[in-house]
Amino acid sequence: MRKEGDPSERATDGHEPRLSRASVGRLSLYLRHLEGLLHDGVHKVSSSQLGDSLGVTDAQVRKDLGSLGHLGHPGVGYAAAELIAAIRRALGIDREWRAALAGAGNLARALLRYHGFVSRGFRFVALFDADPAKIGQRIDGLEIHATAAIPAVIAATRAELGVLTVPAESCQSVAEAMVAAGVRGILNFAPAVLRLPPTVQVVSVDLTVQLEQLAFLVQWNGGEG
Amino acid sequence: MRKEGDPSERATDGHEPRLSRASVGRLSLYLRHLEGLLHDGVHKVSSSQLGDSLGVTDAQVRKDLGSLGHLGHPGVGYAAAELIAAIRRALGIDREWRAALAGAGNLARALLRYHGFVSRGFRFVALFDADPAKIGQRIDGLEIHATAAIPAVIAATRAELGVLTVPAESCQSVAEAMVAAGVRGILNFAPAVLRLPPTVQVVSVDLTVQLEQLAFLVQWNGGEG
DNA sequence: GGATGTGAACGACTTCACAGCG
DNA sequence: CGCTGTGAAGTCGTTCACATCC
User: Fold this and answer.
1) Residue A10: what pLDDT?
2) Which A positions 101-120 lie with beta carbon below 8 A of chain B?
């Protein structure tokens, strides 16, 4: 009944990108692959090389990269370092992002210890849990606060993003508390659909849905071995 | 350069569903919501009620449900119990799925302890890790085996699905070992793109990509607060 | 020659709108 | 009269194919 948070307006400077969700996902993959190439001393890459490594057509790669500006050199390919800078800028990850994490369970531990986030400029600056027994404990040096402390701690740490690894029952209220405290985007791992004002961006990672996707594919398209 | 594992052939009986990926994801959401409704004693639901709860248009809901057969009652709505049965069958989760988990870290712990999987018929039957120090230990009663044991253990447990929470460097080789041992679908959490034969179904949950999606949305579409 | 950039064709998914049924 | 089911229209994203440039 209501529309999705589709490509909307809002400019910040010169030419901001107007990219589809799918395109953003692929750019993220290109970025990681390009960093690997650069690390291996490869400085030039063509759309077909990039596509082959990632299971994407060369035309698709060119369309995606073309939307960032004229970065390619006909007959040669793309310069890895240039592409990396352009993609980081387009994705908005050419700066640090401060994130607050709610739900101090195993998934939270996994996220806190995953170094891939830090290397991309994502920093966890606050941690919350509803369990009184956990309050005051630390995970990786980050103190666990009560959910009642969300307003104060989010304000103090100036977290812009919220990551939810809480149970389904509490995700809506925790999300609302975070939004009220100033958080502008939420990454939701709880198995429930969040309903938030359209000014707040939500990305959901619903593990049950993903596993069921896989079961469906195997059931109906699976190899006939 | 190569095509995706798109909607393909393969029949098993009467009328198997020909559903898009997006549609399967929504059906999974409908299913969970319907189970909640039934639990609350609600037995009938209309497409607009269902859609409103999940942020989907009523027309979309009808299209999705229509593809499962004629389940609706004009002027009345849908019977929750009927829908649940039909969706479970369409998704292929009207039976048990046996899964093997590789990478015994915090993410693995989170998945093993998540009850939502068990209640949907997903059962973890094997656990692997590359770290010799972990071999023989148990998590939630499940013994950790060496990755060298993948062929024997997968064969013995008859796992059909593989879940990868290993580092990016090892995901390709672990996936190949699992596939060689008979696994027909892989849920990949490693931050890398798997290249496997098209007879093997792959669903990837790339947490870095998801976080970067969120950063992009907040950066460019975010509320102008 | 080799690779980019891009309109045009194509295909997939979503929304509209309304006939039809209980 | 309310709500489903569904062709038709519309929108969005991908692939094709080729002019263009180094």
Assistant:
1) 38
2) 105-107, 109-111, 113-114, 116-117, 120
